[in-house]
Specification:
Layout: H1 5-29, H2 38-59, H3 74-77, H4 82-85, H5 88-96, H6 98-103, H7 107-116, H8 130-141
Helix pairs in contact: 2-8
Length: 146
């Protein structure tokens, strides 16, 4: 069997056209979306946590005394990055049952009470779960001091 020049040219042209067709189909079906990495997932989870924390912060009436979005107030400044300043275990206990810390004369609570001159704290949120408290702390930590 003798192979002619036309046969070779036709075979090459067919391969090139086939490649172009597959390439065009790939371009048409390619979806433009960001790569899903652990960092992207973590960022999305954190954003949802912050959003839930904000809702809880307002719903639980924390905003009546603490206004983290108004950084000029002294009590709001103290909340910025609070979970890095104070132990989370202590914060959970303080938010849930401030009175128990006063009863055992916790030095940090007594100092805060003296500085901010509050008579009857509203930190009695025993119904909040650990996840909800984490959401609130993530919300507070989302504020940046310039």
């Amino acid at each position: 069997m003798k192979i002619s020049g036309n046969f070779i040219l036709g075979a090459i042209t067919s391969c090139v056209l086939l490649y172009l067709i597959f390439w065009m189909v790939q371009i048409q079906t390619k979806q433009e979306r960001e790569d899903i990495t652990d960092a992207v997932i973590s960022e999305r989870v954190l954003k949802r946590s912050i959003s839930r924390g904000k809702e809880l912060f307002i719903k639980e009436d924390c905003y009546s005394c603490h206004k983290p979005d108004k950084l000029q107030t002294p009590s709001s400044m103290k909340l910025i990055n609070i979970s890095y300043i104070r132990d989370k275990k202590w914060l959970f206990r303080f938010i849930r049952d401030e009175k128990s810390l006063l009863e055992v004369k916790d030095s940090e609570v007594l100092e805060l009470k003296k500085i901010y001159k509050w008579a009857n704290g509203k930190h009695d949120k025993k119904h909040l779960t650990d996840d909800q408290l984490h959401d609130i702390l993530n919300y507070l930590d989302s504020f940046k001091v310039n």
